[in-house]
C-alpha cells in the first residue's frame, strides 16, 4: 500500500485505510521519525500513544524481560482510555503477540541518507543537552564512537535499514494487514492530514 490515494488500496487517501483503522503501529529505522509521527497521529485520532522503547527499556539501559515488558504493554493497551484505539511505535518483535489487534501499519521507509542525517543530529542534540529518555536513561556521547551497534544507535540504524525494508516489504506483500508505506516527508504530511478522530 502506497500513499498515492488513487485507488482502493493506495495509501492514506484510500477508503479502507481511512474508514476503520483505529489501532495503528508505526515502524521503521531508528531516526526515521516513528515516535514523532505516532504522537502526532494519536493526537489527531484522540487515542493513546504507546512508545515501545519506553516499555522495553528500564533504568540503566536494562532491557526488560519479555514477560515483564508485556505486562506493562498489556496494561497500556487495555485500559479504558485505549478501548477505542491506540498508536504504537517501535520494531520490537517481542511485542507482536500483544499487537494482534493492529488494524494497519505505517511503515516509514525514508531514504537511508535522510534517516542518517536526522539521527546524527538528534543523537548529538540529546547527548549535548543530556535529554532524558525512558526510565531516566540518556544517550551517551562516546557511544557514537563505539563499533558495537547495541551501543551506537547510528551504527544500529545503518545496519538495520535494509533489514527493516526486507521485513516490512515482505509483510506488505502478504496482504495480511494493510501497510501504508511512507517514503518522504511529503507522504508523512499527507497521511497525517488524512486522519480523523476515532469515535466512541
Description:
The protein has 200 residues and is α/β, with parallel strands linked by helices. It has a single domain, classed as P-loop containing nucleotide triphosphate hydrolases (Rossmann fold, 3-Layer(aba) Sandwich), CATH 3.40.50.300. It is 42% helix and 13% strand. It contains seven helices and seven strands. The strands form two sheets. It has a five-stranded parallel sheet, with helices on both faces. A hairpin with a 3-residue loop joins strand 3 and strand 4 (62-63). Helix 5 (112-129) crosses helix 6. The chain is globular, with a radius of gyration of 17 Å. Residues 1-19 have low confidence and may be disordered.
In short:
The protein has helices at residues 15-19, 34-45, 52-56, 66-78, 112-129, 153-174, 185-193; strands at residues 23-28, 49-51, 57-58, 62-63, 86-89, 104-108, 179-182.
Amino acid at each position: 500500500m502506497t500513499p498515492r490515494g488513487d485507488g482502493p488500496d493506495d495509501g492514506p487517501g484510500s477508503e479502507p485505510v481511512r474508514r476503520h483503522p483505529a489501532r495503528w503501529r508505526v515502524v521503521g529505522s531508528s531516526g526515521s521519525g516513528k515516535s514523532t509521527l505516532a504522537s502526532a497521529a494519536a493526537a489527531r485520532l484522540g487515542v493513546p500513544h504507546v512508545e515501545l522503547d519506553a516499555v522495553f527499556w528500564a533504568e540503566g539501559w536494562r532491557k526488560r524481560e519479555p514477560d515483564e515488558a508485556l505486562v506493562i504493554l498489556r496494561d497500556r493497551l487495555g485500559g479504558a482510555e485505549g478501548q477505542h484505539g491506540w498508536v504504537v511505535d517501535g520494531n520490537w518483535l517481542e511485542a507482536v503477540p500483544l499487537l494482534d489487534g493492529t488494524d494497519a501499519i505505517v511503515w516509514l521507509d525514508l531514504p537511508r541518507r535522510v534517516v542518517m542525517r536526522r539521527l546524527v543530529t538528534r543523537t548529538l542534540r540529546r547527548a549535548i543537552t543530556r535529554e532524558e529518555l525512558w526510565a531516566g536513561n540518556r544517550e551517551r556521547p562516546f557511544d557514537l564512537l563505539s563499533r558495537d551497534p547495541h551501543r551506537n544507535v547510528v551504527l544500529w540504524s545503518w545496519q538495520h535499514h535494509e533489514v527493516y525494508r526486507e521485513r516490512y516489504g515482505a509483510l506488505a506483500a502478504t496482504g495480511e494487514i494493510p501497510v501504508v508505506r511512507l517514503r518522504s516527508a511529503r507522504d508523512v504530511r499527507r497521511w497525517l492530514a488524512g486522519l480523523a478522530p476515532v469515535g466512541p
